[in-house]
Amino acid sequence: QKLPFRSGGSRGYSVNGGVWRSGSGAEGSDEGDAIYHGEGREEGVLIVGWGNKRPVPLCLSVFESGAAVPILVATIRPICDVNRNPMIPKFTRRPSSTRWLTVLAVLALATAADGGAPPTEMLAAPAPQPAQAGFSLLSDYVGRGSFVGAPQAEGDAFGTAFEAFYRVRLGNAWPALPDSGWFLRLGATSERFDFGQTGNLPLPNHLQSIGARLALEYFVKDKPGIFLEVVPSLNFENEIGADSFQVSGLAYVSYPITPSFIAVLGLVGSSNARNPILPAVGFVWTINPEWTVFAIPPRPRIIYSPTPTLQFWAGGEILSGTFRVDGDTGRGENLQSAIVTYRDLRAGAGVTYRGWKPALVELGAGYSFNRKFDYYRAEKGYAIDGGAPFVQLTVGLAF
Questions:
Q1: Using one digit for the tens of pLDDT, what is the confidence trace for 168-195?
Q2: φ and ψ at 387, to 5 degrees?
Q3: CB of 292 closer than 8 Å to CB of 286
Q4: What is the pTM of this model?
Q5: How many alpha carbons fall within 13 Å on the CB side of residue 57?
């Protein structure tokens, strides 16, 4: 194939091996044509020119097979003059009579052998998009443990959570990055905890919630860059009333520090929580295609992906919810219709399987080391002494 480009006769500078070099312009006209005759699977050409008068850009052009117009062009234009810059040592300069140099470096955009997709096919493929609809169902069990200060009282917990969502694309307004767009996500959620307890402590036998999820999301390809979510819900024991209503929310932005390291900064809040608003800070570090550090609460993880469909992970989980308990329960006057926060801090490991593309199955197990019922407004709390093992299963579909 032939890859034409305009070499240009203006002079400039480039960096080769960390050393600045200068040179003179090409002989002949100020502008010329060059043709690169590529063979095999070379799909890109790196063009570097330098001189000693005016900057020449370092240009990267990527061509589709047989095309005369590049589909991707990136340019870096230096702005300093080597011969006039006192910060550059004398020995790095070259005489101005040195000929103008153009380097054609074929990019290593080769694919894996034995059926790998050609580079142009990967470049021309549609960018991945976030799932339009889906649902997930989670179920877990935490083993029995005794309560602090009441060794005769014991308790375990069985939890379920369900969520369904649907996304509507809104457009590609600011910041209007390539392969990006704004989405409105509408969803529903429910959660329930059932507690098996002995010892006559003033604790609920179950806690539950039902709610809606309204989120505004900005995606770049299939990765969220801006996220704003509001969750109005009813959180209760058995009786639903106006005081069961609460609003929680989450807002964050992500920023790529490097192509492999993304920082995340945000806020999380709940109207009935002890601390209504808390900061949320984390990062995603893609060490290589197999290893990823996903350090974002409430489920930070280190993930190993030996294949595209299989992941092994280890990490933690912060499980917390605020609920309104029933009145007239005989738990004491200050605990009637009180707000209770149920919290469970865990560490564990597991496996995630995506063998069938729309589906996800995840199995995890570990240890719950801090489980507590906190009537924070009444200044009373009941915590499990030590901890207990847990097991968790999640299934989901996303289209």
A1: 998 877 777 777 889 999 999 999 999 9
A2: 155, -170
A3: yes
A4: 0.67
A5: 13
